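User: quick one - fold this with calcium ion bound?
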Amino acid sequence: MSAKILVIEDEPAIQALISVNLKRAGHEVVAALDAESARRHVDEALPDLILLDWMLPGTSGLDFARRLRGEARTRDVPIIMLTARGEEADKVQGLTVGADDYVTKPFSPKELLARIQAVLRRQRPHVAEDALEVGGLRLDPVTHRVTAGSCVVNLGPTEFRLLHFLMAHAERVHSRVQLLDQVWGDHVFVEERTVDVHIRRLRAALEATGHDGLVQTVRGSGYRLSAQPEQ
Ligand code: CA
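Assistant: Sure. Structure tokens for the protein plus calcium ion:
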């Protein structure tokens, strides 16, 4: 499982230790020493997960988590808080502002990686390498194959990522901006129209096996993948 992880930690030695271990496990790491520079990274591209130190210079980790949870674009990005505090009251406070998990320093890299995998599997199924099945379509992220029964569906790389995201979050409606953030990793420099172009290509590729109807347009909102026929 390979995810883009933003690590916000002001102690260089810990930052380096975490980054090395995450990269070794196949993740892409973006490092920030404080909440302000982390903010700039988040504005550019949404990470799949944020590791957030509690005690930071300037804006505290707790305040930063609260802000991320207060904005529609960043509300669902998984957050794991890192802290030297092991007290129950702090843990409760961290989870109250919306952290998905909590790791107390000192932690072993192995433990941290296990927590990250658990949160990703739960919150970011399109990053996990589990095969998905919806409405007769099967997508295997490991072999990069999409099949419908014994037929192979041929997709370009962008259509594959788009289908992977839609299948991992089936039945939910996604706006074009959300799809740009999640599938393209860029909501600033890519035009919303691009999403429509690739949705069209995806539908065309799914037509051969009669699965194009799974990709549905929700007027005024965006797109969804659904095993239920369109109303
Ligand atoms: Ca710190």
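One thing worth noting: Residues 10-11, 53, 55-56 surround calcium ion (CB under 6 Å).
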